[in-house]
Amino acid sequence: MGGDDECVIVVREFDPSKDLASVEEVEKRCEVGPSGKLSLFTDLLGDPICRVRHSPAFLMLVAELSSTKEIVGMIRGCIKTVTCGKKLSRNTKTNDPSKPLPVYTKVAYILGLRVSPSHRRMGIGLKLVLRMEEWFVQNGTEYSYLATENDNQASVNLFTDKCGYSKFRTPSILVNPVFAHRLPVSNRVSLIKLSPSDAESLYRRRFSTIEFFPRDIDSVLNNRLSLGTFLAVPRGCCYTQETWAGCDKFLSDPPESWAVLSVWNCKDVFRLEVRGASRMRKTLAKTTRIVDKLLPFLRLPSIPEVFKPFGLHFLYGVGGEGPSAAKLVYALCAHAHNLAKEGGCSVVATEVANGEPLKAGVPHWKRLSCDADLWCIKRLGEDYSDGSVGDWTKSPPGLSIFVDPREF
Length: 408
Ligand SMILES: CC(C)(COP(=O)(O)OP(=O)(O)OC[C@H]1O[C@@H](n2cnc3c(N)ncnc32)[C@H](O)[C@@H]1OP(=O)(O)O)[C@@H](O)C(=O)NCCC(=O)NCCS
Known about the structure:
24% helix, disordered N terminus, seven-stranded mixed sheet, Aminopeptidase, alpha+beta, binds coenzyme A
């Protein structure tokens, strides 16, 4: 940073006892995504590490001007173990050889990188990333990854040109508004709420070979932010909430089609706000909501309140099997909408692989959604996983991806 004393940057660990106010100040000044258009702002409700604290290991760093002690940037990172591929079992005594097993690896995830607009393009973002990566390496992670908007040129350039990341996956963020009216759930579908242990069993046995499946799925499902896992089956099949006899029984004789998803309460973690909308757009949105509230039986697709801080629920573990799985997902999404309405949320979001076959069953508004959320990845070390996948960064995408709700 040259010899200018003003610009000497110290990167150190975030200290909640003294940094809270200044970190919040930087957060407030930072839009996420390209500037000049509508921008999304995040309010972390006074807890800057809220989006990493539920992971097995996490760290937040801040960049401080040595002369004035002003905080001008920050970054969060977390470490966990996830599936990076699959292999066939060699031990035929304990495993069914036709069923592939997951290959796990230790990965790090970078999020919440922010540099104050007044101090950009001075190398601070790069410094924060490099220091975070040092911590990842010290903790034996094999890969580091992050998600960014495709058109966030600053972020894409920083990671791909300067830090050696490559573009890896482009899952779709699907966002649906929460209306003032309830959505009907098809009467051809039965919904069953699973206990966390049944949900764990179902996810491990059917989803654990999907990439990014977290090995500690049990801690995700048992987290207070996880509002429940719901299974949808065709009405008339032998499974109902009343007769439910556990996941083993279900998986030993499943119906032809079934679908599942879990709901995560992001509203208690952070609020979002869309800024930059014209007065006319805001008034129009408000009018649709008033009419929907007054006349809910009309089921008007009202525009949600997104121009003030709003909360959301995130749907994770969306999956299923059989020819009617997408229809069953649709019914689950209607149920999730109603839960979000009761919870006072403005939108429901989920993130699925670009080629996910069940995407057709997830209702969403294109304008609120993001067709290609760019995930970039870098290999930090070799052979921490069992090596059977080779270099994961070079592997083609699967049909599905497991998006961890802790990081959304
Ligand atoms: C992305 C962000 C953190 C970059 O921070 P920064 O301190 O300005 O970045 P640096 O000065 O370390 O820049 C390093 C490299 O990143 C790239 N870069 C940074 N800003 C850029 C911009 N506005 N346009 C194009 N490339 C840019 C360049 O390659 C740059 O190297 P160079 O200056 O030698 O050309 C900052 O712009 C920011 O806070 N943006 C808003 C929040 C956000 O989008 N965060 C990322 C979410 S993952």
